[in-house]
Amino acid sequence: MNTPRILVVIGTPLAGSLNHALAHSYADAARAAGAEVRLVDLARDAVPGHPAERNEVRLPRTDSDVPLAPEVAAYVDDVDWADHLVFFFPQWWGSYPAALKTWIDRVFLSGFAYRYRPAGRLWDKLLTGRSARIVMTMDSPPLWNAWAYRNAAIRSLRNATLEFCGIRVRGVTRLAEVRHRSDADRERWIGGMVSLGATDAGAVVARPRDELVPA
Question: Which CATH code fits 5-51+66-203?
Answer without folding.
Answer: 3.40.50.360
